[in-house]
Amino acid sequence: MQLKKYTDYGLRVLMYLAAKEDTKRATIDELSGIFNVPRNHLNKVVHQLGKEGLIETRRGKNGGFLLAIEPADIRLDKVIRRLEGDEYWVDCHKPECAIFPVCELKHVINQGKETFYDFLAGYTLASLVSNDAQIREFWGTPIPVTIDKD
């Protein structure tokens, strides 16, 4: 299983906001430069994080965004489920699988998925930024990221 880039970017945004020392609002341009991620991708992610109530967004001259919830209260399993969409990992219906009624694959994969999320439930956003001072050291230079043109 591989997380979507969308989810990766969402987690980066949340980590950035949690590790910031000041209460100044972050901007899309700021994050785009730091993470070397296209603005339009970040706009979509930030919009959803706002809709989910994880960040507070403000438009306009003094606009930007901040965390709306304490990092210790943001569980990773919930964030990843929201950003990934809670879809089945095996699609038995497109095309329709001939052995669907008797196949055990869907059950095994779904059990593995739930085990994955149960594991993540033990971690919060605060768990990811316990080394916030070290994280901030890298913010002066963009993090090397290869951007696919998709």
Descriptive account of the structure:
With 150 residues, the chain is mainly α. The protein has one domain (5-140): Winged helix-like DNA-binding domain superfamily/Winged helix DNA-binding domain (Arc Repressor Mutant, subunit A, Orthogonal Bundle), CATH 1.10.10. It has helices spanning 5-19, 28-35, 39-51, 76-84, 105-120, 125-128, 132-137; strands spanning 55-58, 64-67. The chain starts with a helix and ends in a 13-residue tail after the last helix. Residues 141-147 have low confidence and may be disordered.
Regarding quaternary structure, what we see is: single chain
Number of helical segments? 7
Domain tally: 1
**What proportion strand?**
5-15%
* Major sheet strand order: 1-2
What is the radius of gyration?
A: 18 Å
The helix-strand sequence is: HHHEEHHHH
CATH class: Mainly Alpha
Q: What is the arithmetic mean of pLDDT?
A: 86
Say how many strands there are.
Answer: 2
Low-confidence stretches: 141-147
Summarize this structure briefly.
Keywords: DNA-binding. This protein is mainly alpha-helical and 150 residues long.
What's the topology here?
Blueprint (H helix, E strand, L loop, with lengths): L4 H15 L8 H8 L3 H13 L3 E4 L5 E4 L8 H9 L20 H16 L4 H4 L3 H6 L13
Antiparallel strand pairs: 1-2
Helix pairs in contact: 1-3, 1-4, 2-3, 4-5
Key terms:
mainly alpha; 2 strands; Arc Repressor Mutant, subunit A; single chain; 7 helices; 150 residues; two-stranded antiparallel ribbon
